[in-house]
Design brief:
The protein is of the alpha+beta class and 371 residues long. Among the domains are: 61-160, Immunoglobulins (Immunoglobulin-like, Sandwich), CATH 2.60.40; 173-249, Alpha Horseshoe (Serine Threonine Protein Phosphatase 5, Tetratricopeptide repeat). It is 43% helix and 13% strand.
């Protein structure tokens, strides 16, 4: 299945001038095993091994990384055919993300601090952490970590992607099911190359797959992503267009085209592509609601910008796009609704208190309160 990376790096927020796109954060690498330490020889030392709880019992703070391991599966028990975005949310300002691998497994690293009066399990409960998987076309999966014993890291089981939402569009290209086996094998090998960052090899395999099956929308989409990474924006856009034409219900290439247009400040084109996505799949795309709202804002279409900002913020359960509230505040400010703008700005600061814009927004709030 071809799932969209929801880590859509939509830090595309620009209020009046243009948009900037924040580079996607690479997924954390699995930890390397620590070197094996020789066991102390009782004959050579009389000092007993350190009790791992001694520091806490002495009243010192403990600061450690906890590794959380889970596996994603479909209702039939098999892993998704592509990598899936996963978020770890521990409250406002504490959200990280990664991607599952081709076996559906993913690892998340969480730094936990605990003092003398609480152990790590208690601290995890107080942090209110949850793993969230929000894949367009599927129900959002949330697993709370409160109460789990994660003292040394843990495999906390399976998450099941269930029941596709009612949606005309999909993040899975159905015409890929018709691909001849040689084309499919080239695609699978390309994904293995991508996992190893062998971009040229992956690109060659995808081109072979497309030569065998020119309507292979998934292969065209993934080729476009490689071309974009290599700096060939025009070629990437052409591959995305071909993918969208080969499978009109395949949302992924339209998402990429919307992002490319917004980055280039082609607001009308960004609006059109994002509208096409939201028309086919109105649920599960808070980042595309942000793109649509930005595009409308920059064309002075305030009604549409406000509508998209409100809908996107209501769907952003993982708090991945707090800038929806920032944009909403600016829309309401433009419309003279100072009270509504102030509330939107407060919502933004609550979700992103350490953002680069936080200081400026606090100044705006202060000015609004004095009016």
């Amino acid at each position: 299945m071809g799932f969209l990376r929801l880590a859509i790096a939509v830090v595309l927020f620009c209020v009046q001038i243009g948009a900037q796109q924040k580079p996607p954060t690479p997924p954390p690498q699995p930890p390397q095993p620590p070197p094996t330490q020789p066991k102390p020889d009782p004959a050579k030392t009389s000092k007993p091994p350190e009790d791992p709880t001694a520091e806490r019992e002495r009243g010192l703070n403990s600061d450690r990384d906890v590794m959380i391991t889970e596996r994603l599966v479909m209702p039939d028990g098999l892993p998704p055919e592509e990598m899936v975005p996963v978020a770890l949310s521990c409250g406002p300002g504490r959200t990280s993300s990664t991607m599952s691998d081709l076996q559906g497994e993913f690892r998340l690293r969480l730094n936990v601090q605990s003092g003398p009066s609480e152990d790590i399990a208690t601290r995890m409960t107080n942090m209110q952490c949850a793993v969230i998987v929000s894949v367009p076309g599927f129900l959002t999966v949330r697993k709370d970590l409160a109460g789990l014993d994660l003292k040394s890291g843990a495999d906390v089981g399976y998450l099941v992607l269930r029941s596709p939402l009612k949606s005309e569009g999909t993040t899975v290209s159905m015409n890929g099911l018709k691909a001849p086996e040689p084309a499919r094998q080239h695609l699978l090998k390309a994904r293995e190359d991508l996992a190893k960052e062998k971009l040229d090899s992956a690109k060659g395999r995808l081109e072979k797959a497309i030569k065998i099956y020119p309507e292979y929308a998934t292969a065209l989409y993934e080729l476009g992503r490689i071309q974009a990474r290599q700096g060939n924006a025009a070629q990437a856009a052409e591959s995305y267009r071909r993918a969208a034409e080969a499978d009109p219900k395949y949302i992924n290439p339209l998402v990429e085209l919307a992002l490319m247009a917004a980055t280039a400040r082609e607001w009308r084109e960004a609006e059109q592509h994002s509208e096409a996505v939201l028309r086919m799949a109105p649920e599960g795309f808070p980042g595309i609601y942000l793109v649509h709202a930005i595009a409308c804002f920059n064309q002075n279409k305030m009604d549409a910008a406000e509508k998209s900002a409100r809908e996107g913020s209501s769907q952003d359960k993982a708090n991945q796009f707090p800038k929806l509230f920032h944009l909403l505040g600016n829309v309401l400010l433009q419309r003279g609704d100072k009270q509504g703008a102030a509330e939107a700005f407060r919502q933004y600061l609550e979700r992103a208190p350490q953002s680069p814009e936080a200081a400026k927004i606090r100044q705006q709030l202060e000015a609004l309160s004095n009016q």
